[in-house]
Design goal:
globular; DNA binding; 4-stranded antiparallel sheet; 38% helix; alpha+beta; 231 residues; HTH_CRP; transcription regulation; 23% strand
């Protein structure tokens, strides 16, 4: 008989996948359950970073805010992703803010609890280092996109990345055009124009605040991805 999710609540969290079941269960035991309603901030840029947030359900926007109040969305995190890995390695303030895009449940692991566990299981530090590596790769790719892709290309790539999380034949992305503009790094007007062009070409359609992708292959090509199945 396999292990049930209630017995292994962190079984799907990549950061802790290399740990044995008892170690993951110990983490879950000391973590604090959290619930965030849609629109609530999980943490603020600049505030003390004292915990790791493990998302169990929902979706969270990670963003930076300019002095003018404009937002730049860095990532949309969904289960079983984690937020705040850096806070486990240093005590610097949060480098970004996080807001629930949907009603979200999570587990919060205090840095002090993590440090105590590292002393008894050094593999936990290896797990965090792997997660940090993935974070650096994602941020490096985002920086490259702003150099090598035009805005429609960045919009297409953002849609593809979001669509990859939806295995169903009909891909519906619940992200309004303001949020999409924050992720693609452009004005709402420019992103609206790109969405309109894609819709006219039959690659997607909009339904209120939702975007329904109808031709993922075309969006992948516009974003500069190699053809699926290609070498």
């Amino acid at each position: 008989m396999g292990v049930t999710p209630s017995e292994d609540p962190l079984g799907g969290v990549a950061m802790f996948s290399g740990l044995d079941l008892p170690a993951r269960q110990r983490i879950a035991e000391v973590a604090v359950p959290r619930h965030y309603h849609r629109g609530r901030l999980l943490f603020f840029e600049g505030e003390p970073a004292e915990s790791l947030i493990m998302i169990r359900s929902g979706a969270v926007s990670v963003f930076r805010t300019a002095a003018t109040g404009e937002r730049a969305m860095l990532h949309v995190a969904r289960p079983p992703e984690v937020l705040g890995e850096v806070s486990l390695l240093d005590s610097s303030p949060r480098s970004a803010s996080a807001e629930a895009l949907e009603d979200t449940t999570a587990l919060a692991l205090a840095r002090s609890s993590f440090i105590e566990m590292v002393h008894s299981n050094p593999k936990m530090l290896d797990a965090v280092m792997r997660s940090m590596g993935m974070l650096v790769r994602r941020l490096t790719e985002q920086s490259s996109d702003h150099v090598f892709l035009d805005l429609p290309g960045r919009v297409a790539k953002t849609l593809v990345r979001l669509a990859e999380r939806h295995p169903s034949p009909i891909i519906t992305i619940e992200l309004n055009q303001t949020q999409l503009a924050e992720m693609a790094g452009g004005s709402r007007q420019s992103v609206n124009q790109a969405i309109g062009i894609f819709a006219n070409r039959g690659w997607l359609r909009t339904e209120g605040r939702k975007i329904v992708v109808t031709d993922l292959a075309a969006l992948r090509k516009r974003a500069g991805f190699p053809p699926e199945g290609g070498n």
